[in-house]
Task: inverse folding
């Protein structure tokens, strides 16, 4: 059983190089926004997006909330989409922001990044319950092949917790960034990148630069581009640790591009993904 | 549509009085621990527990992670168990510790505490993403009939984030407790209790007393009794705001009681629930 498994970060790095892309397409299938003929078939909509963006993106990020809102049928759709995306050569980052303690955290880890094969290649994880809530996920990461992205500083405006000022004058999220750096120290692969990633909202360029400094080995996932208003050109510093050291995630601006473009949803998503991919690669400076 | 809906906290208070119970039974169906003949049927196991504990508990708390680990079939089981528990006269607290921003948070709220009827009466919510991540859930609470329990101070040992010391010398979780008190201020029902509850680990009796002081109107959900080692007698102060102002949650010690008792799992769960109910009521001083 001691098969050397390539780490998640190394798999990601190899795909980034091959596709010259650091684009992640978020799959947020809000039923009300789908093309009318697909409102009853979220899986088909998402698989259409996968076909369209597969040449341009390194990963898709299905947002579990939208699948959960559809009940058991939604979860079946989630599974179908994850499998379809993997077969299309995309990595799958399940965006669930899960976090709990003890046997419950183990159950979440088993649900998403364990199993043979696991449903997803990586899972977003909420750190609020502390180190021992993250430990079961770190166990899965250490066994190899999968990753996590810890929610460090999100793209929204309300920093009630993340920006709370600690005794030493730093914002709370800096403390979390240091924990992420520490948690990832054992998981660095051949590229030097750790498979314990971090989510940092792209809407705060200064925070992105701070995050890069605090977590030099960490793959930073940057949501907030597109519908949320962040500019790709402001993200250059995130890529200082290598071409795969940051990923830029766009959701609504890609999957609902047809609304502005007036064309087929796949065609519009493919065109927007191709455009974003080039823009991000240029901004990354690699 | 301006029908006056009884608040979650008032419904809870009325059930607490009627049953003279503040016991919540956690449904954590870890397949490996179920009676052998039920390992393929988590829903049947949980419904058996519901039958056994319904006379003694005010609510069940299905832990989503264990259902999610079983994929779409697990979610179908979750729905079946929630419906069964409601019909047995129990309130349902979905333990998902969800938290996200914008349209995603709305999707989580729709998934669990909206709809006609909603799948659950209340949902546990993770506050790490701040006020605007909690807002969609607060909207559902304000519309009436449902509640949330915000994760303030958990029962595990690692307080990396929750116990971080702020500039003013207080632990981070005190700041979150104040936010919960504020968020709940508009939702107080006739009993004076708010439907924005808080989760406080019962394993820290001093924290329980602090939590009561910081959140006088809040229903405090206290996990950690039983398998995690907290003593019911240490929890008296949590009940200072009324008989329904605190709930004590036990999971493994009830649902797996058959392992020590050597009897039918329902019989063992019912006996342990009855015992705990009496112990908690006595400790509550009401």
Result:
């Amino acid at each position: 059983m001691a098969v050397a498994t390539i780490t998640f970060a190394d798999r990601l790095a190899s795909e980034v190089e091959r596709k010259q892309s650091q684009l992640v397409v978020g799959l947020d299938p809000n039923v009300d926004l789908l093309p009318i003929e697909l409102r009853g078939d979220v899986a088909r909509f998402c698989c259409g997006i996968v076909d369209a963006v597969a040449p341009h993106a390194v990963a898709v990020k299905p947002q579990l909330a939208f699948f959960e809102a559809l009940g058991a049928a939604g979860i079946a759709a989630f599974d179908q989409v994850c499998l379809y995306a993997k077969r299309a050569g995309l990595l799958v980052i399940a965006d669930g922001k899960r976090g709990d303690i003890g046997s419950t955290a183990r159950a979440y880890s088993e649900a998403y990044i364990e199993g043979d094969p696991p449903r997803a290649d990586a899972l977003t994880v909420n750190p609020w319950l502390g180190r021992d809530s993250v430990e079961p996920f770190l166990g899965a990461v250490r066994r190899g092949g999968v990753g996590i992205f810890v929610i460090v500083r999100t793209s929204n405006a309300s920093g009630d917790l993340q920006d709370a000022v600690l005794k030493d004058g730093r914002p709370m999220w800096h403390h979390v960034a240091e924990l992420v750096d520490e948690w990832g120290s054992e998981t660095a692969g051949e590229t030097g990148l750790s498979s314990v990633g971090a989510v940092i909202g792209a809407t705060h360029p200064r925070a992105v630069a701070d995050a890069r400094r605090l977590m030099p080995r960490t793959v930073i996932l940057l949501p907030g581009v597109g519908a949320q208003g962040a500019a790709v050109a402001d993200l250059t510093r995130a890529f200082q640790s290598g071409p795969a050291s940051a990923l830029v995630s766009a959701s609504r601006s890609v999957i609902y591009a047809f609304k502005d473009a007036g064309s087929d949803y796949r065609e519009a998503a493919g065109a927007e993904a191709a455009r974003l991919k080039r823009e991000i690669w240029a901004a990354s400076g690699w």
About this structure: Chain A touches chain B through 55 residues (CB under 8 Å).
